[in-house]
Amino acid sequence: MSVNLIFKIAAVGILVSILNQVLKHSGREEQAFLASLAGLLLVLGWILPYIYELFQSMRQLFQI
């Protein structure tokens, strides 16, 4: 996992939290929820290959 990925995840987290607060204060709770969900799915899409690689490594480690 590279440091760039960590910085991208942190940037998305900061942007989503700011957007979430702005939308909540303007009375748009549904859009705030959707923005949070979109940020979560974006980050999950970035992390899934690393999770897959982890499980493949675990499978190879415990394979007889």
UniProtKB/TrEMBL annotation:
Respond yes or no to whether keyword Oxidoreductase is given for this record: no
Q: Which UniProt keywords apply?
A: Membrane, Transmembrane, Transmembrane helix
Q: Which domain of life is it from?
A: Bacteria
Is the keyword Transmembrane assigned to this protein? yes
- InterPro entries from the UniProt entry: Spore_III_AC (IPR009570), Spore_III_AC/AD (IPR025664)
Q: What Pfam families does the database record attribute to this sequence?
A: SpoIIIAC (PF06686)
Which stretches are transmembrane? Answer: 6-23, 32-52
Q: What is this protein called?
A: Stage III sporulation protein AC
Q: Which organism is it from?
A: Hespellia stercorisuis DSM 15480
Read off the lineage from the record. Bacteria, Bacillati, Bacillota, Clostridia, Lachnospirales
